[in-house]
């Protein structure tokens, strides 16, 4: 087992990893930017190293700075958390070259799944259901038009190196194809330095359901059931829950088997997620594979009673997994509490938190790094905390979430708490009648 782990991240996920490391008897190193010098990860880690100024490109995204911090503190492993460098093949490879274990996927696995066109080809070969579309990257506009006729409109153009909702355009007819083609390529080139584009059939009224997976260095793989992430805005998740209210036992088995096929197809090592779109007929299609821990891993932990960060660390240290699949025994919901004003189209609301009181009680969990007096920086993601509740049924979980949200006090800035309070009262949400388009008509 590792003696010392450096956490190459910040905020709640850095604190989350520190807690598990301490429970495992592993020393920790926090890295931080000048903007985060007063953060809780810096306070609670065994050691802390400043790696640069507030701008993330010169701190949390600086591979040389992070490797230097690991070397001067004699860390034998690095946990990247999520975001930042967690799915950066170069970072994973650099760790290898310096004799430091990267707690995550190998460079080959990150590259293979990070390129969406290549990932789709790999899944098709493995027998995982995929959305009909182009065979690899589109050559030019003419090829795009020809493929769209074969697939049938509506279609969606996607950047092969895309992520976070960028580099995507829905095209409803041939007249709109040229402008969509030009704008998608331009956005992809600007955001990812790669203007490669592929095409898929656009699935109408879909659910976004992902399967949590784990694989070890010996070829063993298992799944830990599903999470429904359909409540999202501009492709950014707002609420996640498990089990999905749309799921059936038969569909869970089929999606679980497909996720394990995907895991084994790339000899995946670590904890990750296979994401699917599920249409109204409960036909499901591979969307992407995330080769890292997810923001919403918490709800899976609650319903199977297991620490997924601990599992990540054990796999990276060479432990075998049991290979046993896990299924939810309770219902868990997570609300992402962001420093945003839902009344003004979720405008970011950085600033100083003047008063803070978190909810508690049975079945309530808060993952956060903030406190009264903490300043939310405009330099980073606006997430303040993750509020997680667990109960025997979905109905009970919704009532518990409503109660917890009512107790949650954050003053000095605007937050998304009022949005979540209204969502928990929404009749369609309460009966599980929603798709990824839910927010298009939800009025706050």
Broad structural category: alpha+beta
Estimated share of beta-strand residues: 25-35%
The top-level CATH class of the largest domain is: Alpha Beta
Report on the biggest sheet.
8 strands, antiparallel
Total domain modules: 3
If helices are DSSP runs of H or I spanning 4 or more residues, what is the number of helices?
15
Q: Indicate the CATH architecture of the largest domain.
A: 2-Layer Sandwich
The tally of beta strands, per DSSP, is 22
Strand order of the largest sheet: 13-12-9-10-11-14-21-19
Oligomer: single chain
Please tell me about this protein's structure.
The chain has 444 residues and is an alpha+beta fold. It folds into three domains: 4-103, 3-Layer(aba) Sandwich (Rossmann fold); 132-201, ATP-grasp fold, A domain (Dna Ligase, domain 1); 207-441, D-amino Acid Aminotransferase, Chain A, domain 1 (2-Layer Sandwich). The protein is 33% helix and 28% strand. It is built from 15 helices and 22 strands. An eight-stranded antiparallel β-sheet has the order 13-12-9-10-11-14-21-19, with helices on both faces. A five-stranded parallel β-sheet has the order 3-2-1-4-5. A hairpin with a 5-residue loop joins strand 9 (207-215) and strand 10 (221-233). Helix 4 (89-97) runs antiparallel to helix 5 (107-114). The radius of gyration is 21 Å and the shape is globular. The termini are far apart.
């Amino acid at each position: 087992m590792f003696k010392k782990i450096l956490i190459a991240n910040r905020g709640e996920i850095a604190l989350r990893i520190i807690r598990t490391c301490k429970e495992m008897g592993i020393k920790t190193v926090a890295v931080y930017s000048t903007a985060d010098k007063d953060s809780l990860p810096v306070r609670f880690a065994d050691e802390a190293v400043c790696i640069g100024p507030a701008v993330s490109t010169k701190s949390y995204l600086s591979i040389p700075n992070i490797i230097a911090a690991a070397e001067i503190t004699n860390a034998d492993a690095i946990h990247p958390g999520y975001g930042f460098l967690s799915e950066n093949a170069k970072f994973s490879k650099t760790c290898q070259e310096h004799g430091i274990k990267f707690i995550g996927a190998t460079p080959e696995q990150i590259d293979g799944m990070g390129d969406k066109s290549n990932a789709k080809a790999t899944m098709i070969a493995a027998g995982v259901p995929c959305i009909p579309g182009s065979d690899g990257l589109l050559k030019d506009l003419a090829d795009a038009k020809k493929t769209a006729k074969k697939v049938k409109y509506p279609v969606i153009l996607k950047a092969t190196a895309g992520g976070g909702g960028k580099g995507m355009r829905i095209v409803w007819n041939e007249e709109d194809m040229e402008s969509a083609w030009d704008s998608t390529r331009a956005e992809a080139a600007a955001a990812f330095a790669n203007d490669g584009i592929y095409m898929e059939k656009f699935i109408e009224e879909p659910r976004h359901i992902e399967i949590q997976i784990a694989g070890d260095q010996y070829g063993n793989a298992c799944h830990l059931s599903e999470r429904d992430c359909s409540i999202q805005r501009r492709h950014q998740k707002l609420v996640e829950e498990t089990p999905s209210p749309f799921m059936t036992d038969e569909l869970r088995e089929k999606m679980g088997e497909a996720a394990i096929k995907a895991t084994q197809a790339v000899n995946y090592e670590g904890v990750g997620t296979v994401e699917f779109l599920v249409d109204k007929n409960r036909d499901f299609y591979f969307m992407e594979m995330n080769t890292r821990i997810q923001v919403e891993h918490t709800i899976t932990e609650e319903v199977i009673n297991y620490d997924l960060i601990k599992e990540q660390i054990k796999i990276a240290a060479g432990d075998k997994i049991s290979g046993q699949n896990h299924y939810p025994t309770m219902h868990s919901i997570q609300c992402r509490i962001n420093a945003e004003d839902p009344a003004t189209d979720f405008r970011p609301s950085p600033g100083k938190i003047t008063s803070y009181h978190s909810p508690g009680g049975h079945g309530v969990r808060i993952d956060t790094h903030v406190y009264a007096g903490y300043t939310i920086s405009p330099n980073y993601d606006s997430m303040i905390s993750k509020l997680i509740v667990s109960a025997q049924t979905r109905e009970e979980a919704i009532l518990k979430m409503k109660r917890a949200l009512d107790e949650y006090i954050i003053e000095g800035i605007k937050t998304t708490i009022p949005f979540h309070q209204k969502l928990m009262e929404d009749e369609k949400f309460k009966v599980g009648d929603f798709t990824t388009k839910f927010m298009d008509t939800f009025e706050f």
